[in-house]
Protein 1
Amino acid sequence: MSSEFTERDGHMHVEALALGDIAAEVGTPFYCYSSAALRSRYAALATALAALKVDIFYAVKANSNPAIIATLAAEGAGADIVSGGELRQALAAGVPAQKIVFAGVAKTEEELAFALEHGIGQFNVESFAELNSLNQVATKMQRVAPVGLRVNPDVDAGTHAKITTGRKENKFGIDIAAAPEFFKAAAAMDGISARSMSVHIGSQITNLVPFELAYRNLREMTLSLRQQGFSIDHLDLGGGLGIVYDAENEPDLSDYARIIKATVSDLDCRLSIEPGRFLTGNAGVLVTKVLLVKEGEGRDFVITDGAMNDLIRPTLYEAFHDIRPLTQRSGDARLIDVVGPICESGDYFAKSRLMQPAKAGDLLAVMGAGAYGAVMSSTYNSRPLIPEVLVDYARFHIIRPRMSYAEMLARDSLPDWLDKTKP
């Protein structure tokens, strides 16, 4: 848990504000983020890598709210984006186009053209088909696209199968052995300038060994490409640094810096990384209210107004999130399932969790919800999207309002033959 979320006088606070007071104004459920936590995480990483002059590009997919992007951009972060929508959010948040890297396995021609128009810093290309498409778009626009090849180093990050991206069986990147063929093809294209390589092996990585293996592979290929006459002046080292949700050992940033120094720092390349979860994960919580407690065989079901459509990680990734009461209560711990009201057995935040008893009206904080929480939410079961709140010491702002039922219904329309309101 971030140090900005603390318990004082029996109540959980975020910076100088009681979370319960925010809940009274905003209603539940809602997401709450700490500006101080975001700045602190960025500063810790930037300080650890300062001597190596590593640029930090925030992976927007972790939490794409423009207020989060803008907070990190004000600290010096660029943006790593994977869609045209994320590109627009990064630009709206004030990230300079030259500090934006466009990743992702497939980009539409419209997305490529929009990014070229705005002069983004780099396209990370992941296939020969994408390279050809980008060249066609750039040539038609009389532009030259700055390109980095995302290589697949066949390194297992040792994380959940759904967030591992660096093995040969994953859809991401080009086999690193094919890099010379890629750069040869790129050199013959009028709309392409390829002088960079990128690697990203997965997410929530707490063991640094896979990073070292991937970076050594990147180093060897960089030297080989240079011997073959290709100019490589930038290495994008990807993201994936993990955080503590339960009992993990968070990566030591000084050790991470030593790995970068030992593997690629002497190659006279610009270096960059793309953290996402590491910056935002423990900077946010989901606050939810207990609707009722249902006694079951051997356990209680604490049913909350928050649900899997608000935070899907537990059922999607079997992810653990610590759950804490906003107000401390006495009582012996019991075996509890914390579940939502959605009509799915997968609608839960915790199963068989030993927790203090709860009662209707209690407020709970689902910790570590700042990454892949709100950004993955949906309106399943016709539940409106919930608000996001950003705190800055003793003030807060609703950075995404709660969706009303009217707004949710307005997204859809009936064809004439079904609309009974029309003559």
Note: The CA atoms of residues 125 and 384 lie 36 Å apart.
Protein 2
Amino acid sequence: MEEKNFVKLLSPRVTTLIVSKNSEGKINAAPYSFVYPFSFEPALIGVGVGKHKMTFKNIKETKEFTVNIVSEDFAQQAVNCEEKIEFYKRIEKNQLHLEDSEKVSVPRIKESKAVLECKLNEVLELKEADHCIVVGRVVSVKAAEKDGVLDIDEMNYLMHETGGTFRRVGGKVLLSRKK
């Protein structure tokens, strides 16, 4: 098996729409699935972003972004934001809606049932890699809840395998953990 297939072994991954803006206030949205928790305290996430991408340039410039978790009800619109059109027209063309965030100046996607508002903590650039890791400090969380508890089933979020293949979140599996 070719080494580049390693990503299939680490799939599926949560599908997100990362929203960023430049210093002129132009908004960009692009789909990403290289997203993962990095630290509990402080609350940090890592996002693998291509070094040549507008998302990377915007986050380095304004130091803020939102991570909008994609659910099935707007999945195609979110994935379409990858289209090679002018970066700042992707949201409008795909009929997504922006709303103000609570603690960052970058807006969030109204259709998303779960959003992490982030401030740039650090950028990890590896010499030989085509991607870097944008480490964001989570400063606000919006998520679907049921009786005050996070409701994963209500969020109905989509997992990315590779290419155009996605999966639904399945049922719960409860295992005991010894600490």
Note: DSSP finds five helices and 14 strands in the chain.
